[in-house]
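Data card: per-record layout.
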Amino acid sequence: MVAESGPGAAGPLPSVVAALGDDQLVVLMRQGDAVAFETLYRRHATFAINLAVRIQGNACDVEDVVHDAFLRAAQRTDALRDPGAFRPWLGSIVVRLVKTRLRRGRLMNVFGIGLGQRAAADLLDIDMLVSSDAGPEARAELFQVYTALLELPADDRIAWTLRYVEHHDLQGVSQLAECSVATAKRRISRAQTHLLAKYRNPASEDDSEEPSTS
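The structure for this 214-residue chain is written out next.
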């Protein structure tokens, strides 16, 4: 990863860089500092991987997605107005890349050359999505929810996942999905309506309550 970031002249010592905040690391990365890039990668790679997995429902190629996200971030740091907001900005890049993958998959299904919904459901990796202490009922419920999400357009699926699986507030959803708060609310509402029509449980009888995704 570091070699591909295009490092310039040697910067501060690694031990010093590791103690810097994201805003300072972004400034150094803009100058081509390879250690700053690697520090940001180590600090936020797990966040990016988990985000991609939870949106997709599996870990297929998520390392490639995260790799590409970090490279794009390194190449476009001038577009980041607030260097201290690197993490949510990186998250928006990850979401954009995953959305492209989801849309491509749906388009391929339309032309009969994709996996199809049943095969896509078979790829769902509940072990990657559910907490280790979750019981069989919670695991079965989560599988049903993700199977229903496969039927949704990518934008609605992503917005709902960010809200109810990642537990972001509406502002966070709009930031990660790169849309207005009003648009995020509409997408979440459409997804929630779809899920309630497909699958109901006591915790989701009231639309104001968040579905269980333990």
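Known properties of this structure: DSSP finds eleven helices and no strands in the chain. The chain has two domains: 1-115, 124-214.

See the next section for split statistics.
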